[in-house]
Amino acid sequence: MSNTKILVTGGTGYIGSHTVVELQQAGYDVVIIDNLSNSNIGVLDGIQRISGIRPEFLQGDINDIRTLRDLFSTHGPIKGIINFAASKAVGESVQKPILYYRNNLVGLLNLLEVMPEYDVKGIVFSSSCTVYGEPDKNPIDESAPIKPATSPYGNTKQISEEIISDVIHAGSPIKSILLRYFNPVGAHPSAEIGELPIGVPQNLIPYLTQTAAGIRPLLTIFGNDYDTPDGTCIRDFIDVVDLARAHVIAMRRMLDRNDTAPLEIFNLGTGRGLSVMQLIQSFERATGVKVPYTIGPRRKGDIEKIWADPTKANEVLGWKADTDIDQTMRNAWKWQLKVTPAK
Ligand code: UD1
Question: Which of 156, 170, 267, 278 could connect to 104 by a Cys-Cys bridge, CB 3.0–4.6 Å?
Answer without folding.
Answer: 156
